[in-house]
Amino acid sequence: MIDQINGLHHVTSLASGAQSNNDFFTKTLGLRRIKKTVNFDAPEVYHLYYGDEAGTPGTVMTYFPFPNARRGRPGTGEVGITGFAVPKGSLPYWQERLATFDVRNIETETTFGENRLRFDGPDGDGFVLVETDGDSRTPWTNNGVPADAAIRGFHSADMRLRDAAASAELLKFMGYEELDRQDNVTRFHVPGGNEANVIDISQVNAPMADQGAGSVHHIAFSVDNRQKQLEVRKALMDTGYQVTPVIDRDYFYAIYFRTPGGVLFEIATNEPGFDRDEDTAHLGEALKLPTQHEHLRQILEDRYLEPIID
């Protein structure tokens, strides 16, 4: 069994526009944009990162905003809901705030004894705010959300699968333990991990998802450093998983593999962090390009990357 994983590192999704995506996460949800860079494989597309002040692993939501991308079709084989942790008693504030910003499909619910507020992102993305008690993470509060309501980071990710069994075994191999079951949902968590340590598996009878704007592209799990990442990679490969070589993503090192249920998993290092090329006080302000794309800066800014107005 793997014991190096701490919980979630980041969640990466697809969007149809950079400005609307930026506005939703910074102005509506009150997160900080911590990095403005580009897709390594398609540099004409932004890669935007949002999180707490420093982009602490377990708080970071990232997006590839493909201009005018068609909307994805929800289904199985994907992460259907991304959960954020908020303080106890803060959901009435959020319900009013989201309504003020014309957020769609706002609904209250209780799951596993937790009060939750579900809503859609600009492209139909599935989100939920979950009231938690004792979350020690320091929130970003410079975008207008008070500290007693601000998002602390991730709470969970909910995978929708036709057959939960094989993915449940994978999570257990990755150090997760089954915590509870409710209806068709099984909850797992990493004991002693970071506070973004919950994964839910919803077993549903539905067609496979068709990815597009609003879809989660992959979820990334946190390990402390490259040595622990290599240990995880070897353990996964010894078990029969096809795992990519280590890829330098500038702010972390990454490996990827496809799960039995079809969800793309990444294992990402906590090092070197988002301050490697920007001071923490100025994270997300300048366009940062991977070294191999720096020579394209002028053409990317002039032709492809829409200006983002903060």
UniProtKB/TrEMBL annotation:
GO molecular function, one term: dioxygenase activity
Keyword field: Dioxygenase, Oxidoreductase
Segments forming domain VOC: 7-132, 153-270
Pfam families: Glyoxalase (PF00903)
SUPFAM superfamilies: Glyoxalase/Bleomycin resistance protein/Dihydroxybiphenyl dioxygenase
Tagged with keyword S-adenosyl-L-methionine: no
Keyword set includes Oxidoreductase: yes
Protein name: Dioxygenase
Gene source species: Marivita geojedonensis
